[in-house]
Give the backbone structure.
Amino acid sequence: MTKFFIPLLMFTLSLFAKDALKCEVVNEDEIYKIKCTYLTTKKSHDRNISIAWTSPSTPQDDRFKTILLPAENISVYDYRYFDGRADGSWVISATDASTGEVTTTEFVKADLSESNISSLLCKDPSLGQPLPVK
């Protein structure tokens, strides 16, 4: 009985799933990166996902990138190096070209000095909570 219930439950949950754009600061070999992952529902066809980074103060730092999301996959990611990015409130948006759905998140970039590395503010506006530095 449970072998039929679990797939039915997973299918039902996937019908109500919402797209999400999650950002985090990662430390790879002492190089900090801002990594944003777009999560969506599985589709049977390839899709283009456009990710736009909007700087709070320097328009030349904005970036627009289109990434192919292959059929049956549920996520893509993009990252920017932390150094050289403007401090302040960044807006990142992901647009699914096949549906036109736009998902937006925001994070606050602060200086990565030793004194405030533990209090780095990368906030998910829907949760209002800081995201962890990994």
User: Anything to note?
Assistant: The two ends are 41 Å apart (CA to CA).
